[in-house]
Amino acid sequence: METPDKCWKFGIFYVNADDTALFVAKRYGVGYTLNFGNRWSWAIMVLILFAVTLPLLVPVFIIRSTGHRFHL
Description:
- This protein is α+β, with helices and mostly antiparallel strands.
- The chain has one helix and four strands, in the order E-E-E-E-H.
- The protein has a two-stranded antiparallel ribbon. Strands 3-4 form a two-stranded antiparallel ribbon.
- It is elongated.
- The relative contact order is 0.13.
């Protein structure tokens, strides 16, 4: 399906609530991107952000729970 130019915000974000597809072909290059007009794409984005931040936060919580103090 051809994606209309007016549905591309800033040239990289596809937003079309009338399109039921969750993934659409990228406007430039190879691959797919999310249709941010579909509410499930926001759930996927939350999961991706959670998957990225969790490994970064776990060491912080472990260090704080042990009460360890770092001395330079």
